[in-house]
Specification:
The chain has a domain at 21-62 and 89-196: 2-Layer Sandwich (Beta-Lactamase), CATH 3.30.450. It has 8 helices and 7 strands; from the N terminus they run ββαββααααααββαβ. By secondary structure, the chain is of the alpha+beta class. It is globular. A hairpin with a 2-residue loop joins strand 1 (3-4) and strand 2 (7-8). The longest helix has 19 residues, at 91-109. The chain has helices spanning 22-34, 53-58, 74-80, 84-87, 91-109, 114-124, 127-144, 178-182, and strands at residues 3-4, 7-8, 39-43, 48-51, 155-159, 167-174, 185-196. The strands form 2 sheets. It has a 5-stranded antiparallel beta sheet with strand order 4-3-7-6-5. Helix content is 37%, strand content 17%.
Amino acid sequence: MAHQAGGQWPAPRPVPEGCEVPAYLQDYAVLVEAVPFPSLVVDHRWNVMLANGAYGTLFRGVRPHPTAMPGDNFLRFVLFHPDAAGVLGEHEQGWCLPMLAHLKDALDHSGHDHELQSIRRDLGQDPLMEAAYRQGLPHWIRAVGEAATRIDGAVRLLHHPDPRRGTTECRIVEETPRTLAEIGCTRLTMVLRDSRRPAGAGRRQRRTRGTGAHLTVVPAPQD
């Protein structure tokens, strides 16, 4: 399996209670590892159940973070890690707002889930993120349409650490076999494209070290 910044990726997470397919997941991990593109399996909370070496390579430069490492929970990484915009191009529009939409959808369906509620509480600790969730997100969805929140088939920008890739697009492909779906998991693969955008396109959005995920979709509060 892949390696995370500061050490190894965690071993595959425990199989959900009542699941009788641990051997299936072990074999499925071998399949995921064989894919040359970044590929991961997440549960409905976006906990990373499995991830391959290409996924680890994509995030190899990410600094340690107590709650938002890409090998632990992808949703938390997108929303809260200060290095997220250095890897996920066009971070706000391409990644952060769609993931906020998925958080809202997950809360609508599993509102009592403790992990999802924890993410929601952490959003509330940042006034800009809270405003983005409550006001900016609905405005954005009205402007771009519900289709923009979909993951399968979405084309997103990445800043790959391998200079042979550099800034490049990927198409996210969801391919979830029935057995994974039955235990509430989803597999996502980022199919990297060979073509690159012209210089200057997809400019990195860097955040100040140690700050939260501040969005420009809503104005900063006025003193």
